[in-house]
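User: I'm writing a short report section on ligand binding and want a predicted complex to refer to. Could you take this sequence and magnesium ion and write out the structure as tokens? A short remark afterwards would be nice.
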Amino acid sequence: MIEVRNISKRFGETVVLSDISVNFEQGKTNLIIGQSGSGKTVLLKSIVGLHDIDEGEIWFGDTHFNSLAFHERKEIRKEIGMLFQGAALFDSSTVEQNVMFPLDMFTNKSYEEKLDRVNFCLKRVNIENVNALFPAELSGGMKKRVGIARAIALNPKYLFCDEPNSGLDPKTGILIDNLIKEITEEYNITTIVNTHDMNSVIEIGDKVIFIYEGAKLWEGTKEEIMSTKCKELNEFVFATSLAKKLIKY
Amino acid sequence: MKFLEQLGKYFYLLSKVFARPEKIRIYYKQILREIENLGINSFGIVIIVSVFVGAVITIQTNYNIENPLLPSYLVGVTVRDSLLLEFSSTMMALILAGKIGSSISSEIGTMRVTEQIDALEIMGVNSASYLILPKIIAAVFFFPILSLLSMFVGIFGGYLICLIADVVPPSDYIYGIQYVFYPHYVSYAITKVVFYAFIIVTVSSFHGYYASGGALEVGKSSTKAVVHSSILVLLANLVLTKLILS
Ligand SMILES: Nc1ncnc2c1ncn2[C@@H]1O[C@H](COP(=O)(O)OP(=O)(O)OP(=O)(O)O)[C@@H](O)[C@H]1O
Ligand SMILES: [Mg+2]
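Assistant: Sure. The structure tokens for the complex follow:
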């Protein structure tokens, strides 16, 4: 479980996150939704410690994460996997080297054992026989899959995904979403996913929080979201012209 | 004010770079890779530029001292000393600042804007040390080799032009390059080059590491990397020359 207590984050004078508190539960896919620029990425990066927060506390289980120094965070970091908005694969390394990287860094296994694990992870995200390719040779969807494979290589307890299906067609997007949900349940991971895609919400949102201009306006399940009274959330949910047309009928 | 802030960030980055390394074996692989990228791949440009400069200094010196009172072996002496004292250290460093500086800062800058550096940090890897330290080690170790290469090739370039064109008799040139040779000129050049290597790698890495935005900013940061490291190389040259030769 990850607990966020009253965190705030400013860049210079601009307040990007104000007083956000939320519990992210284990074995569930927790979604953070909100418009572009609402602060989702900053929130996610603040939770994992890529941004220092100005106020508040972040707890990973029983550990007060943001009170730790850089080198003390290492133990928790090993339990975190993260998929970035653009996948962030290492350009100069092959797919195999990318997925093996965390294993090289943090285990003393033999090459064969590591290769086994790499192939297992690649298979888990439904791509095979791409070991020798470079990221530039992959399609957007494949990059995301490799990104997920790298994120789960060390059996993380926590998985963070920043817009896992942005830039993908709706069908591939849903495949990636479902993959994340399956992995979350299979390994009982605490997963947090950023998205502005209502498809994802309907498909995988066990728990959803809505961020608006840096503040948490709403929290609930994907079932509750359709009947919410929150005006800003309603506008967000029914923003697409498809949704508007459907409402007319 | 801005300058002081930058300076502070630069030294903060250096302190991260020299923090205790994570896993020596991984660094070892990176160092080999960087020796290839920064060192071996620079052989070509160093050889080409040095041959031509050696030849041109020979022609120009001969042209300038065409005086029956001055012995023609002086041309060899001048070529040797120009190369040893300035060209194969400072001028070569300026050329490498252009080649290596821009490649380092665009490589690291691209990693920054595509979140690859965040990906390293999230895995608990000290990204500054992992990316920059192998480059520093490779350059500090390999720049002196490039400098020695430049000296030999430059002197050879002068010899070549004596053979091909009618400049000085080759035997006079050979006599000249051996005439009153001070070995400490070489150690002086090597000392300078070690400092230059450190300056070029750290300044270029600094500009890449703190790049933000997109491809445009990465391009700008690599221009800054080249300009700033060239200026600092020249400043360092002034200071080191004063310190070492006085
Ligand atoms: N490093 C930074 N320095 C200054 N301001 C920043 C920085 N990173 C983000 N911001 C600002 O914080 C706000 C929230 O940005 P964020 O990237 O979190 O949005 P987002 O919700 O992830 O949007 P998107 O859906 O487009 O990814 C934006 O107004 C942005 O300009
Ligand atoms: Mg974002």
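A remark for your report: The mean pLDDT of chain B is 92. The pocket of magnesium ion (ligand 2) is lined by residues A 40-41, 85, 162-163 (CB under 6 Å).
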